[in-house]
Amino acid sequence: PFRFTQADREGRIIRFQKNLITTGFCPVTDDCIDENKSFNYTVFTPRDGKEKRSDAIILLHGLNERNWNKYLTWAEHLAENTGKSVILFPIAFHMNRTPSLWSNPRAILPWVNERKQEVSDLDNSTFVNVALSSRISKQPLRFYVSGLVSVYDVLQLVREIKSGYHPFFKEGTSVNIFAYSIGALLSQVMLLANPENLFTDTRLFMFCGGSIFSEINGNARDILDGEASLRLRNYYMYDFLKTFPLAFSNANISLEQAFSMMICPTVMTEQRESFFQSAYSRIRAVSLKKDVVIPTQGIIKALGKVSQKILEELDFSFPYSHQVPFPVNGCGYNESVNRAFRCVFEKVATFL
Question: b/e for 18-42, b at 16 or more Cβ within 10 A?
Answer without folding.
Answer: eebeebebbeeebbebeebbebebb
